[in-house]
Design goal:
This protein has 179 residues and is mainly α. Helix 1 packs parallel to helix 5, helix 2 runs antiparallel to helix 5 and helix 4 crosses helix 5. The longest helix is centred in the first third of the chain and has 30 residues.
C-alpha cells in the first residue's frame, strides 16, 4: 500500500490519423486473429493427447471475451464479446470509422495478460511433457510464435501508449497491476 492505487483503466477513444495508424490497427487485427486461430488449432491438437490440457487451452481462449462481455455497457458489444467476435467487431469498426474505441485496447491488454501469456506457458508445458507428432509440434510452435507477435504488438500500442494524457498521469502498466 506504499504505492497510491491509480484509477481503473479506461482507454480514451483515439482517432486513427493517416495510413500509418490504420496500418498498425490492421496489423494488430491480423496478429490477434492469427494468435486466436493458432490457439484453437493447438487446442484441437491437445484433445487427442491430454483432455485437461485441452480444457485449459479452451478456458484461456474464452476468458477475455467473457470478461469483456460482463464489463462493457453497450449491449451490441456485450453480444459480440460473448460470442467470441468482439475484437473482430471492434477492429472492423475502428478501421471503418477511423476511431479506435478504448474498449478495444482494454480487450487487447486483458487478452495479452490473461490469454496469450498463460497460453504460451501452457503450450510450452504441453510440448515438454507429452509425446507429440511433428505436425502437432509445428502447430504448437506456430501458436507460440503468433502469440509472441500479438503480445508484442499489444505491448507496443496499448500497455505503454505514448499519448501525452497517459504519460502525464499514472502509467498504464501500473494500472493493470492494481486491477
Amino acid at each position: 500500500k506504499h504505492i497510491p492505487e491509480p484509477p481503473p483503466i479506461h482507454y480514451r477513444p483515439k482517432e486513427l490519423i493517416g495510413f500509418e495508424h490504420k496500418l498498425l490497427t490492421s496489423g494488430l487485427a491480423i496478429s490477434s486473429f492469427a494468435d486466436i486461430i493458432s490457439d484453437i488449432f493447438t487446442a484441437i491438437s491437445m484433445i487427442h493427447i491430454s483432455f485437461p490440457m485441452f480444457v485449459g487451452q479452451v478456458a484461456l481462449i474464452a476468458f477475455p471475451g467473457v470478461y469483456m462481455s460482463i464489463n462493457v455497457l453497450n449491449p451490441i458489444k456485450k453480444f459480440w464479446f460473448a460470442i467470441g467476435l468482439g475484437s473482430l467487431y471492434e477492429y472492423l469498426k475502428a478501421i471503418y470509422t477511423g476511431i479506435e474505441d478504448g474498449e478495444l485496447m482494454e480487450f487487447k491488454v486483458i487478452e495479452t495478460l490473461i490469454e496469450s501469456c498463460p497460453s504460451g506457458v501452457l503450450q510450452l508445458y504441453f510440448l515438454s511433457q507429452f509425446e507429440v507428432s511433428n505436425q502437432e509440434f509445428e502447430t504448437v510452435l506456430i501458436s507460440l510464435i503468433s502469440g509472441i507477435v500479438a503480445s508484442g504488438f499489444t505491448m507496443a500500442t496499448a500497455v505503454f501508449p505514448l499519448e501525452s494524457f497517459y504519460v502525464e498521469n499514472h502509467s498504464t502498466a501500473l494500472q493493470v497491476i492494481h486491477q
